[in-house]
Amino acid sequence: xxxxxxxxxxxxRALIRVDFNVPLDKKTFAVTDxxxxxAALPTIKKVLADGGSVVLMSHLGRxxxxxxxxxxxxxxxxxxxxxxxxxxxxxxxxVKFAEDCASEAAFAxxxxxxxxxxxxxxxxRFYKEEEKGDVAFAEKLAKHGDVYVNDAFGSxxxxxxxxxxxxxxxxxxxxxxxxxxxxxxxxxERVVKxxxxxxxxILGGAKVSDKILIIENLLNIADNILIGGGMAYTFFKALGGxxxxxxxxxxxxxxxxxxxDMAAAKGVKILLxxxxxxxxxxxxxxxxxxxxxxAISNGWMGLDISEKAVxxxxxxxxxxxxxxxxxxxxxxxxxxxxxxxxxxxxxxxxATAKGAFSLVGGGDSVAAVNQFGLADKxxxxxxxxxxxxxxxxxxxxxxxxxxx
Length: 404
Ligand code: 3PG
Ligand code: MG
Prior knowledge:
Bound molecules: 3-phosphoglyceric acid, magnesium ion
Mean pLDDT: 97
Distance between the termini: 5 Å
Oligomer: single chain
């Protein structure tokens, strides 16, 4: 694989696919978390420092799927213009904006860029051709640059025109990974291919169904799998426990049991949270109590892992040399149910301080380490959500494959 370091961009235009699919404030449309924009800066700066110019392209949201009430596309809400100010501020220079990504006007703008200038194109997903991976559309996008740089790890699981197909229109030496993409892939590979043992995966989140494929694949490489969050209760129910009104995917009970059987057969330890903080309703001001997770009172629901679970999970984490964490242990957005996730984040940080390699990925677990101020105490925080999950499911990412 070629990285951006193989090219001197002097006098060249780099067409960089970034993932600026960032959260925006619902009222002001200001960027509320610029992590993904910051993560793309080293790549942009390298091109500019070489004496090149930069054309940035990205999607934002799902404009053709999330329509307005009257059934029309909300172009304003999904405009990448909302990211322009943040980008210019972080780059500390003016950034030009093209109102479209494939019009004659946009091509004229990219063609007239001078060395050192940056142009951001409007949301790629205003075109249905983008998600379809349309070849004619990809060929048009390719006109914006001499070199194609893919730095959008967060979108690498999409075989879209700008993430994958566009690469067909550049010669082998002129399509490369940006710095972010290269480090995301290197860190994920370190866990999948070279994990120092013991390797512990911590999985959380609401649904078992989202995590079945990753658990199946991790059974081939992990020593321990710690399961927290809402998905744990489907396992307890499958084992014959009482889970009160905790989350449960009835149609996954058999599969949950099958995963436990597979783990036993492969000698992988799956740890479920022994006890839970239970609540009488799904609300920040609910009454709470601690109960064993397999004996929850009727009408109560598990919303976080409790002390015994934290102790058991932390011990495994502290004895691990490689740690992958995807998904929170409870409803950490509510203060009453964040202790478990905080404690696990602290255990991951402590293990890292002792020399373990820790990779945290997936929107919610990343939000958690950021919120608790522990992001710089883990080895690597991924910008990928779905992309990282698919990578750990053992799938080849089309955005990565296109550049190999
Ligand atoms: C993400 O945030 O998951 C990526 O930017 C990809 O977006 P998508 O899930 O809408 O394809
Ligand atoms: Mg996604």
